[in-house]
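Hypothesis: this fold can be encoded by more than one sequence.
Test: take the structure tokens below, design a sequence, compare later.
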């Protein structure tokens, strides 16, 4: 029955994790296992019964619509996730460059007063906000 579990997980891999998804996956898996047992009682071999149950199950587009996921929305989500990751990387590099500039200006023009720490705290909010946006999209929120 590992093959059934793997098949169902592959079908629902592009659906964001949620309680509703878990319930539907369990129901689908249970229905497929019952169908396999029925086919085996009718005299089919286990492998043939599993393959027939998978073929008879068909497409899960209606289930995906019920979960609020369409092919377009998963494409949009992956595009937003990719852009969010790029924004995070950009903010990290930009922050490092700005902080480096502050350190240089501080120690070149006024080494007796350490002031670069103050704008550093302000600049660090940028990658922090980008990280939370990226992690939220990654979780599917």
């Amino acid at each position: 029955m590992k093959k059934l579990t793997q098949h169902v997980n592959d079908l629902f891999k592009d659906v964001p994790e949620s309680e509703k998804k878990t319930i539907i996956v369990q129901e689908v898996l249970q229905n497929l296992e019952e169908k396999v047992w029925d086919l085996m009682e009718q005299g089919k071999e286990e492998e043939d019964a599993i393959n027939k149950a998978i073929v008879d199950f068909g497409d899960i587009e209606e289930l995906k619509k019920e979960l609020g996921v369409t092919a377009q929305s998963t494409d949009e989500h992956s595009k937003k996730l990719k852009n969010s990751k790029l924004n995070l990387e950009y903010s990290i590099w930009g922050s490092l460059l700005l902080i480096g500039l502050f350190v240089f200006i501080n120690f070149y023009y006024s080494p007796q007063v350490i002031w670069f720490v103050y704008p550093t705290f302000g600049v660090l909010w940028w990658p922090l906000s980008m990280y939370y946006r990226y992690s939220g999209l990654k979780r599917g929120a």
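The mean pLDDT is 86. Residues 2-66 form one domain.
Hypothesis status: open.
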